[in-house]
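Box 3.1 A note on notation
Throughout this textbook, protein chains are presented in two layers. The first layer is the amino acid sequence; the second is a token string describing backbone geometry. Keep the layers aligned when reading.
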Amino acid sequence: MSENGLLEARDLTVLLGGRRRWLRASVPPLRAVDSVSLSIREGEIFGLIGESGCGKTTLGRTLLGVQREAAGEIRLGGRVVSNLPAAHARAVRREIQYVHQDAGAALDPWWRIGHTLEEGLRIQGMRSAAERRARVATVLPAVGLDAAAYVRYPHEFSGGQLRRVALARILLLAPRIVILDEPTSGLDMSVQATVLNLLLDLRRSQGLTYLFISHDLSVVERLCDRVAIMYLGQIVEQAPTQEIFAHPRHPYTRALLAAAPRLEGEEPDRVALVRGEPASANRRVPGCAFASRCAYAEDQCWAAEPALQYAGPEHRVSCHRWQTVAVR
């Protein structure tokens, strides 16, 4: 890619599962992430959206280093951090931290919150218990929690408070990049707004960069600087947020926006463009991954996979017919 970002992925591919069987046909691996390239700039909030199962979380886990890539390259601050031994990979990717989709499930129910928060510091080599406790005491107020949270257990917190605990846990490790996996899912609107405002405050005060993984289009539109649309393991469109919401080019992007609920009612020019079910990720056929569900598919869509090409200064789209589709 030509643009220089803080975190970059180039032709990243991730395979899941697959096995060889004796005297039976082998089970092919699932192509969860398929030749994805993206660049996240320092200080921005980069949104990643798509339907369930499209590979968003797998991509985030691979950038973190939890999931191994089968091909491609990951760069952090210009330095290659992919295809390294596990211990070395953890060391060079300390600046990337991950907030899990289910904050409660990511916490040990038998450990007090203070013990959980200190554990990350202990793993990173901070031996002094007094120093660890002091660090935790400075981070809790930053995420809106009081000192009493230190001795409480996870079940004593609400969903919104657990999100704050998860943020405190990663802020202790002084990251530069935070991967947020559905950080507002399952929260009511008032708590959701509080969490989003906290994220914005922390971004300013801590100088953070976010990869924001979500299916909530209203939140993405409000929060993100740029957005990438993911379908069946591939990036099919990428643009600044206002551009992609005002002028979607890919039929799948237009379908996602058309499906979003709106208080003002249905817009007549935004019709549903998706039909059928998604194709199987482990039985990919030649051509565009979206062709079987696209109302505009033609022979070339089935024959050749479209490249991610420029449709504007910062607008990229993977579609053979984006110029025709965009004006309909």
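The chain has eleven helices and 14 strands. The mean pLDDT is 85.
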